[in-house]
Amino acid sequence: MINKAKQILKETFGYDAFRSLQKEVIQNVLNKHDTLCIMPTGGGKSLCYQIPALLFEGLTIVVSPLISLMDDQVKQLEAYGIQAVMLNSSLSAASYQENVQLIRQNKVRLLYLAPETLLMEKTLELLASQKVACFTIDEAHCISEWGHDFRPEYRQLAHLRTRFPESVCLALTATATDRVQQDIQKSLQFEASSSFVASFNRENLFLEIKQKSQPAQQTLNFLDKFPDQSGIIYCQSRKQVDEMADFLEDEGYSVKPYHAGLSAEVRQQNQLSFISDDTQIMVATIAFGMGINKPNVRFILHFDMPNNIESYYQQIGRAGRDGLRAECLFLFSYGDIRKIKFFIQQKLPAEQVIASTQLNALVGLAETEACRRIPLLKYFGEDYSKAKCGMCDNCLTEHEPAIDVTIPAQQFLSCIKHTGEIFGAGHMIDILRGSKSQKVLKFGHQKLSTYGIGKHLSKAQWFYLSRQFVQKGLLTQDMQHGSLKLTAKAWAVLRGEQSTSAKLEEQQVAPTLPQAEQKYDSSLFQILRQLRKTMADKLKVPPYVIFPDKTLIEMAIYFPHSEAVMMQLHGVGAVKYAKYGLPFIEAITAYCETNHLSEKLKRKPAGKLSPARKIGKLRHQVIGEKYNAGASVNELKAEFGSQTKTILDHLYKYCGTGELLRLSDDFIELSQLSPKKQDAVSALFNKHGTLALRPVFDALEQKVSYEELKLLRLHFLCQKGNNDAT
Ligand code: ADP
Ligand code: ZN
Fold first, then answer.
1. Which atom number of ligand 1 is nearest to the Cα of residue 174?
2. Nearest atom in ligand 1 to 76's CA
3. pLDDT at 642 over 60
4. CATH 1.10.10.1390 boundaries in the chain
C-alpha cells in the first residue's frame, strides 16, 4: 500500500518524497489504526488524510472548524483533479443539494464538514447510507478545553464515532502541549501508542529578534528585503494597525489592514486581496491568520510584543508553508514589557503567575545569546539537538563579550540623581554629551558636573547602555512618562561598592540573501507569476492553487519545453499538467527563444546543503569578488546597504574559503588607531593567530573594539597572504 501512496504523491501531487512522519502516519491510517498526528503548521498534515482517501474504497470525512479552510482545501483538491466537496452554511441551497447528490452517487472521495453540520440529523442520515472509510478531525485541539480554540461541538464528535464503527479515525493538529494531546486521545478513545509527533522546528524560517530602536526605519529596512513578496506585520492594537497601514501606504507599499474593528465584509475583502497576491502586505492584529493557507508568505514582522511564545510561534508559523525560506523579525522593546507587566498587575493573583511565567519565557527568548531555536523549542518540550541552526540572528553573529562599564554607569546614574529622577534617557544623554538643547538650557543642566563628561560615547551607545542598565535592574522606568529612577543596586554602583559590565555596540546581523538572488531567471519568474495570476483570476482561485511559487521557480531554472521535463518539477502532477501546463510551456518556450536559452534536465540534488549555507556562500563570494575587482569597503557598504562590520565579516569569510584579497590601504585607512597601535595589533595576530579575536581583544585589555580588530585582521591577512604568495 505504501508504494501506492508514494506513487500518488508523485503522480497526483507532483512531490518527490514524503516529509517527516507523513509516511508513518499514512501507513498507520492505511492499516486502519486510529492516529493522532501532531505536526507544525506547514508540516504537511493535509496529505496524511488526502492520500489514504484516494486509496480507501469508501468516503473520507474531514471535519474542519473554518469555512475558509474547507473552501481552500476543496479548491486545491479540485486543481489536482480529486473529487472533494463541502457541506456547510456558506453554500446556496442549490449547491448544497448538488453536493448531496454527488455523495449519494458515490462520486466523492473527500467530504469536508463543519462540526455543526456533521451533528445535524439529516447529515447523519445521509452518511448512514455511505461507506465511511476514514473520519478525519482537522484542528483536533478544538476538542480540548485546554486548547486555545475550544469548540463545544468538537467535543460531541467523540460520541459520533460510534456511528461509524468501521471507519478509522485520524486527528490532526499543530498544537502540541501534553495536556491537549492527552485530552484528544482520551476523548477520542485512542490508544496511547497512536500518536505521531513531528519536530516543531521549522527549518526554513529565519528568526531574528532586535531591540526596537527606530521602529519606522527598522520596518522600512526590513520590508526593503522583500520587494513584491507577501508578508504580515503584527501589531498589538487596532489603532496601531491603522496607523502602520497608513504609514506604509504613504511610503508606496501595497498594504491592507485587518483587525476586529473592521466590518466582516472589509476583513474578508482584505484577506482575499492578500491571498490573491493583489495586496503585498497585511498589517494585522492577532485576529488575522487562522484559516489562512497561503503558502508563499515570505516574512512576518512582529512590530509589537506577541502575547506569549505560543502566539509568537503560531504567528511566525504562517510564513514559509511552501518550504522556501522565509524571515521573521520581532522588534523587542522593554517599553512593551513594562506595559504588559502593568496589565499583568491588574489580573487575579493566580493568573498573574501564569502571565508572568509566559512573559519571562518570551523575554528569555529575546535576550538569549544562544541559538534562538534552543529556548523556542524547549518551550514546546523539545531539545534542539544542534548548538547552532545557522538560521537565526544569534547563529550568524559573533557576540562581543560584555566589558566593564562601571565608570560610564556612574556618570549616567549620577546624572539621574542630580536631575531629580524625573527625566528620561534622551535628556540624560543630552546632558552627558554636552548638548545645547532647549531643554538642557531651560533647566540649567549645562551647569551640572556631569555636563559634557560623556562625549566619548555616541548617542546610540549611551541609549544601548541605558537599556541594559534597566535590564540589569539598576534603573526602573516609569510606565507613563519614561522617567528613570535609581534602585538600591544603582546606589551600590554609585558608591563604588559594585562594578557593572555591559556591551557598547548593539549586534547587527549579517544581511541575508533575498529570494531573488537564488539562481533562477527572475524575469521569467515574473512573467510566469503574471500568467498564473491571470489564470487564477479567471478561475476565481488563489494563484497558489494553480502552482506554488516553488514550481514557478523551478520552471525559471529548468525552462521546461516538454511534458517530460515539466512533469519532473515540484508540484506538477498529471492532472495539474493537463489543466494548466500548456500556457506555461508556451510562455517559457517563447521566452527562451528570445533569450537563446534551452531546456535543462532536473537532477536530484546531490547532498543536502542547508539554504543558509547556500545563501551565505553566495553573498560573501559576491562581496569578495567585487572587492577584488576594485570596490572599496565604503562602496560595498553603499551597494549592499550594510554596516561596515557586515562587509568585513563577509570579506573575512571570503578569505576563509582560501581566496586572497587584493593589496590596498583600504582597511588601514578606515582604522582609527595610531600606526603604532596598529603595529601592536599586527604583532598580536602574529602571536595568537587570526581565528579567534578574543585573545587579541584580551591582550589589548579590552580597549580596542571588535570592529577595529576585524579591520586590522583583514589588513593583516591580506598583507600576509600576498607576501606568502610572492
Ligand atoms: P499543514 O496542514 O500541516 O499546515 P499543509 O498540508 O497545508 O500543511 O502543507 C503545507 C504545504 O506543503 C502545502 O503547500 C503542501 O502542498 C506542501 N507539501 C506537503 N507535503 C509535501 C511533500 N511531501 N513534499 C513537498 N511538499 C509538500
Ligand atoms: Zn540559531
1. 3
2. 16
3. yes
4. 621-725
In the chain, CATH 1.10.150.80 sits at: 516-595
713 HSE (CA, 13 A, CB side)? 27
Burial readout 473-510 (b: 16 or more C-beta within 10 A, e: otherwise): ebbebeeeeebbebbebbeebbeeeeebebbbeebbbb
What pLDDT digit, counting tens, does each position of 470-485 carry?
Answer: 878 899 877 667 789 9
Convert the pLDDT of each residue in 9-31 to its tens digit. Answer: 999 999 999 998 999 999 999 99
Q: Residue type for 631, please? A: A
**pLDDT tens digit string along 546-589?**
999 999 999 999 999 989 889 999 999 999 999 999 999 999 99
Residue 540's contacts (CB-CB under 8 Å, 6 or more residues apart) are: none
Enumerate the H helices of 192-288 as residue ranges: 215-224, 238-250, 264-275
Ligand 1 centre from 19 Cα, in Å?
A: 8
722 pLDDT band (50/70/90 cuts)? low
The least confident of 128-132, 336-340, 493-497, 591-595 is 336-340
CATH 1.10.10.10 for the 403-502 domain, yes or no: yes
Domain with CATH 1.10.10.10 in the chain: 403-502
Amino acid (one-letter) located at 275: I
Cell numbers describing residue 518: 537564488
**Closest Cα partner for 37 from 190, 252, 213, 164?**
190
Q: Tell me, using a 6 A CB cutoff, whether residue 15 lines ligand 1.
A: yes
- Per-chain mean pLDDT for the chain: 88
Per CATH, the number for 2-197 is: 3.40.50.300
| Homologous superfamily of 205-395 | P-loop containing nucleotide triphosphate hydrolases (3.40.50.300)
Regarding pTM above 0.90, the answer is no
Integer CA distances (angstroms), 176 to 169, 316, 328, in order: 18, 16, 21
Q: Is the C-beta atom of 571 inside 6 A of ligand 1?
A: no
516-595 CATH: 1.10.150.80
Q: pLDDT tens across 591-621, in order?
A: 999 998 888 877 654 443 333 333 344 678 8
Ligand closest to the CA atom of residue 396:
2
Q: Is the pLDDT of residue 56 over 90?
A: yes
CATH no. of 621-725: 1.10.10.1390
Q: What is the pLDDT of residue 430?
A: 95
- Spatial contact of 55 and 8, defined as CB atoms under 8 Å apart: yes
Out of 8, 10, 19, mutate this one to test ligand 1's pocket (max ligand atoms within 8 Å of CB): namely: 19
CA 465, distance to chain mean position in Å, is: 28
- Ranges for all domains in the chain classified under CATH 3.40.50.300: 2-197, 205-395
